[in-house]
Amino acid sequence: MKKRAVCVRCGREAALSEDQLARARAKAVQEDGPPPPPLPAGICFRCAFKDPELQEPLREWMKLAVEWSDRRMAQVVRRARQLAVRPLEAIDRFIDTLR
Ligand SMILES: [Zn+2]
């Protein structure tokens, strides 16, 4: 099993590995995924926020992440509305999940 990456500064919190960051970046480009955090690999959020050089980009990123999740939420609501105009289909799908 793969070991979870732990922050090199505090040694406690989970940190992203170079690999995970690369995957997050690729996903953001290909699938309109959430923007990857501007964290160096191996440093957790808590320690990054204590670092004056990383603080500002992280704040900017949090704004982006909130915008992204708002947009994603709007998509979910739109899909739910589409389902609401086709209630029979929604009921069928619901019954399928019970089987
Ligand atoms: Zn840390």
Topology (elements, then pairings):
Elements: H1 18-30, H2 45-50, H3 52-84, H4 87-98
The structure holds zinc ion.
Description:
The chain has 99 residues and is mostly helical. The protein has one domain. Helices cover 65% and strands 0% of the residues. The chain has helices at residues 18-30, 45-50, 52-84, 87-98. The protein starts with 17 loop residues before the first helix and ends with a helix. The model has no long low-confidence stretch (mean pLDDT 88). The structure holds zinc ion. Zinc ion binds at residues 7, 9-10, 13, 44, 46-47.
Number of domains: 1
Structural class: mainly alpha
Q: What is the count of helical runs?
A: 4
| Shape verdict | elongated
Rounded radius of gyration (Å)? 19 Å
C-alpha end-to-end distance: 34 Å
Give the overall average pLDDT: 88
**Poorly predicted ranges (pLDDT <50, ≥5 residues)?**
none
Q: Report the sheet-strand fraction.
A: under 5%
Bound small molecules, by name, code or SMILES, are: zinc ion
Helix content: 55-70%
Strand and helix order = HHHH
Largest sheet: none
| Secondary structure: number of strands | 0
Structure characteristics:
single chain, mainly alpha, elongated, binds zinc ion
In brief:
The protein is mostly helical and 99 residues long. Helix content is 65%, strand content 0%. The mean pLDDT is 88.
